[in-house]
Design brief:
alpha+beta, Beta-Lactamase, Helix Hairpins, 4 domains, 6-stranded mixed beta sheet, 5-stranded antiparallel beta sheet, about 55% helix
Length: about 500
């Protein structure tokens, strides 16, 4: 069938992407990512502080060099800009890289040094003294950053000795960039590694979740499959889950065995008690009041016998010891047989029973057991459906290749939180079961039958019209191994 086809490459890729995105939300991935970013932030702040500290030390060193240069060249005192310019020209025979000297006379003319450096200072001659940091482009177009000291001369001129600190600063500033790039790569690698481990952990958690979901859905043999070579905390959790499920199954088996054993052991004494009470009643020697009490006693004994038989029947179905023979059963014929059987009771209660089968589907199962399960569901619907309402027996295919056989009524329904509870033995809801006969075993038997067929019992709201809301209960047997026989498109039978 189309819905059973294997997923294509696009579906596989989309699921893989979804798992990777889900891995980003894992707790340990978020923790690793947060730790990595905090480490990156602290390291970058440290590098920035270190770069600022190194730059401060560099500036102090350059200031010390400039002061030493000026003090070494100053003799009795500089008289004029011409004298200083001559001294500077004499030193040009041994130029030093990264060092510059500017001499300006009292008229503002450059007597020695690069002419463009004087406008770059941007200060008046009378006030241009002290430390100055100048950024400008040299004669060759290269960027320069000079840090120097301007000293006034006796004739009103100015001498400015400086060092180019830009090459040293560039060497220092590249360190935070290298460190930041390395840390960014480290953060990416840590996130990728965390995603990989997170995807593995999420897959294991998903296995455990699905196992518990299958177990809660009635598959008592569901267990988490162990993985060879893994001994982490998730594997320990899986082992503990399997041990807990084994223990639950053991306790449940013990409870079922005790209830079945009690029902079996009570069968003979109850039969004898019923026979003796009936014999005394038939003798006709007792007073009328006593005979009335005996009639009530006989009713109670019969009620206990029916309950014991129901318990034994559930136990036989759950263990597979009941007589059953699986075959291809036409769904529409099965629904019609159940509707015909309950037709007199439906007429008595003023309820209309309808059957609906989308197509002539057949289900692989035991006809008698399936009829008993549907009869229990229809009997419950007749108890709680309002007078004059419609009850529908239906058979429709599902998108996963299985078939849904169910009963839909328009009664009070069952609250979602109570739908798991009503499947248990002897459970009856006070809001629904007041004054109605029963033992709380009907849905337990239905669930045992559907599990014997490898299916599940589904209880949902019955919504008849779009937007009308929930107006009743829909109880359905979800069965597999269904096939379709060539037949008309739809069959609908109404019984009233």
């Amino acid at each position: 069938m189309p819905w059973a086809e294997a997923p294509g490459a696009a579906g596989t890729e989309s699921r893989g992407l979804a798992r990777r995105l889900q891995a980003l939300g894992a707790g340990h991935v978020r923790q690793a990512t947060a730790t990595a970013f905090i480490f990156l932030l602290v390291t970058l702040l440290t590098m920035a502080s270190g770069a600022a500290l190194i730059e401060g030390v560099l500036n102090s060193h350059v200031r010390e060099l400039v002061l030493n240069t000026i003090q070494a060249q100053e003799t009795a005192g500089w008289k004029s800009a011409e004298d200083v310019a001559l001294a500077r020209r004499a030193q040009d025979g041994e130029p030093r890289e990264g060092r510059s000297s500017l001499v300006v006379d009292a008229m503002g003319s450059v007597r020695h040094g690069a002419p463009g450096l004087w406008p770059a200072l941007g200060c008046e001659l009378s006030r241009c003294h002290g430390w100055h940091r100048v950024r400008w482009q040299g004669p060759g177009g290269q960027r320069q950053e000079w840090l120097g000291l301007a000293v006034p001369l006796a004739d009103g001129g100015l001498v400015y000795d400086a060092y180019d600190v830009l090459p040293m600063l560039e060497r220092v500033r590249v360190l935070p960039l290298i460190a930041g790039a390395g840390l960014f790569v480290a953060v990416l690698l840590s996130i990728v590694a965390s995603m990989r481990f997170g995807a593995h952990s999420l897959a294991r958690v998903e296995d455990i979740r699905r196992t518990l979901q299958r177990y809660a859905g009635g598959e008592s043999a569901a267990r988490v499959q162990p993985r060879a070579g893994e001994h982490d905390e998730l594997e320990s959790l899986a082992l503990s889950v399997n041990q807990a499920l084994d223990r639950i199954n053991t306790v449940m088996d013990e409870v079922r065995a005790v209830s079945s054993h009690l029902a079996h052991e009570l069968g003979t004494p109850l039969t004898r008690l019923h026979h003796r009470l009936f014999t005394v009643f038939e003798a006709g020697n007792a007073p009328a009041a006593v005979r009335d009490e005996m009639v009530q006693a006989l009713d109670e004994v019969e009620r206990i016998q029916r309950m014991s038989n129901a318990i034994l029947r559930i136990g036989a179905v759950e263990s597979g010891r009941c007589q059953h023979q699986f075959e291809a059963v036409p769904a529409s014929a099965l629904l019609n047989d159940v509707a015909d059987y309950f037709q007199p009771l439906a007429e008595q209660r003023g309820v209309t029973v309808q059957t609906r089968a989308a197509t002539e589907w057949r289900v692989h199962g035991d006809r008698a057991l399936l009829m008993q399960a549907l009869s229990n569901l229809l009997d419950n619907a007749l108890k709680y459906a309002h007078m004059g309402k419609v009850i529908e027996l239906y058979a429709v295919p599902r998108g996963d290749g299985r078939i849904e056989l169910g009963v839909a009524d328009r009664g009070p329904g069952i609250a979602p939180l109570q739908r798991e509870q009503v499947r248990m033995r002897f459970v009856r809801l006070e809001s629904r079961d007041q004054g109605s006969p029963g033992y709380g075993l009907g849905l337990s038997l239905v669930q045992a039958i559907v599990r014997l067929h490898g299916g599940s019992l589904l209880l949902t709201d019955n919504i008849t019209e779009k937007g009308a809301g929930a107006v009743g209960l829909k109880a359905a047997l979800i069965l597999g191994q269904a096939d379709r026989r060539e037949a008309p498109e739809s069959v609908e039978v109404g019984n009233s």
